Amino acid sequence: MTIGTEHEYSINDREFRPLPINDKIIQDLNGEVVNEFQFGEVNLSKELQKNVIEIVPNLPGTSVQGLEKTLYGGMKRLYQATHDRYRFLGLGMHPLLKLEQTSVWDHEDKEIYEVYDRLFDIKQHGWLNIQAVQINVPFRNDEELVHLFNRTRAIIPYLVAIGASSPYVEGGLTENADNRLIFYRDNQRKMPIIAHGVIPEKLRSKQDYLDIQQDMYRELREHDAEILCHEWVDSRGVIVRFSRNCVEIKAIDEQECLYSDMAITALSLALLRSKGFDLTENEDDLRSLTEEAIHHGTGNLKQELRQVFDIASKSANKDEMHYLKLIRKRIEEGSLAELMRQRAKEGIRPVLEAMAESLRTNIPYHGL
Questions:
Q1: Can you tell me whether residue 44 is helix, strand or coil?
Q2: Residue 128 vs residues 104, 117, 186: alpha-carbon distances, Å
Q3: Which of 55, 119, 183, 208 is the most buried (most CB within 10 A)?
């Protein structure tokens, strides 16, 4: 099986003030401003918010460890090419960012963001301050699409719990472990069909998904938003990318380093491959579990997460097992958000320094 991931990082000065300059970095490294360009074995691309840059592999990986090697090579090259002028950060949200500190991409495709702004007012955290790791898992036929989609939706709460990394908003420590998802699920509330509260409907067939998609497009057209009628407009926690024959997991906070992203990727793959998958598929139950994960991370879900870990361990291959030790550690010691909270009494600056160092060295916070 091939696997692809996408990673979003904020651009900051030495004091961790966000810098809305992804177009400047693209110009400097590519010679002209474009949406995306090849940068060695990875591609660098813009995001809606100009203080974020995305890194993706040129080609899908055939192993998680191989994918990590490719991505970290690209990350190191980015540091070198920018001469260490910037501090890059992962995490589901920039912990300090205030909305006036960033801006919206205003080059190619800016018309798309203008329509989003007209419909939803994108000058809010749910648009200008969210960073996710996205995992793309391929399917071979319609039957596999439905199976993979339904299995993926059933593991969303557990991925959210382990991956929660956004407890701070505008420098303040909140009661939530995953503020990104709170903002994300509400950022298009004027058209609830687009996000459907993060947990998508269970599919009986490929046509079910196509019908939902057409309902979405119909509502957008009624609001003179034809430009948004593409598969990427779907904001559920898992969507189908027919253009590249994969299911894309969108619900997970960006982690502090690529190794941690790969650990969640390995967990996802092992769970999707597992037999005897006895976790709930009921939409109300999944929503309730996701709410618990959003607010408390792993805190009140230890028993369920240990069960999930056992399921994954039985189906993981050698490549994936390499990463599951970090998953076990996060289940027992807490998600990144919970670990950040434990250190909050020291102030936010030491936390940010630690997160920036984790990204640079590709060593998970609190180690392995």
A1: strand
A2: 8, 11, 13
A3: 55
In this structure, how many other beta carbons lie within 10 angstroms of the beta carbon of residue 164?
A: 32
Sign of the C-alpha dihedral computed for residues 262, 264, 268 and 271 taken in this order? positive
Q: Is 309 left (phi over 0), alpha (psi -120 to 50) or beta?
A: alpha
* Radius of gyration for the chain, computed over Cα atoms and rounded to the nearest angstrom: 19
Overall CATH class of domain 94-361: alpha beta
Place of tokens 């408390």: 296
Tokens found for residue 219 = 């509502």
Going residue by residue through the chain, which has 368 residues, state the pLDDT in tens, using 9 for 90 and above.
789 999 999 999 999 999 999 999 999 999 999 999 999 999 999 999 999 999 999 999 999 999 999 999 999 999 999 999 999 999 999 999 999 999 999 999 999 999 999 999 999 999 999 999 999 999 999 999 999 999 999 999 999 999 999 999 999 999 999 999 999 999 999 999 999 999 999 999 999 999 999 999 999 999 999 999 999 999 999 999 999 999 999 999 999 999 999 999 999 999 999 876 677 889 999 999 999 999 999 999 999 999 999 999 999 999 999 999 999 999 999 999 999 999 999 999 999 999 999 999 999 998 65
The answer to pTM > 0.85 is yes
Q: CA 341 to CA 172: how far, in whole Å? A: 11
Angstrom distance (rounded) from CA 298 to CA 329 = 11
CA 151/CA 264 separation, integer angstroms:
16
**Percentage helix, strand, coil, to 5, in the chain?**
50, 15, 35
Residues whose CB falls within 8 Å of the CB of residue 202, separated by 6 or more in sequence, listed in order: 150, 153, 281, 283
Type of residue numbered 44: L
CA 107 centroid distance within chain: 24
Cβ atoms 12, 21 nearer than 8 A: no
Tokens for 329, please give them. 């550690």
- Inter-residue contact 161 to 293 (CB < 8 Å): yes
* 11-17 long-range contacts, CB within 8 A, separation 24+: 11/51, 11/52, 11/53, 11/86, 11/88, 12/51, 12/86, 12/87, 12/88, 12/89, 12/94, 13/86, 13/87, 14/87, 16/87, 16/89, 16/96, 16/349, 16/352, 16/356, 17/96, 17/101
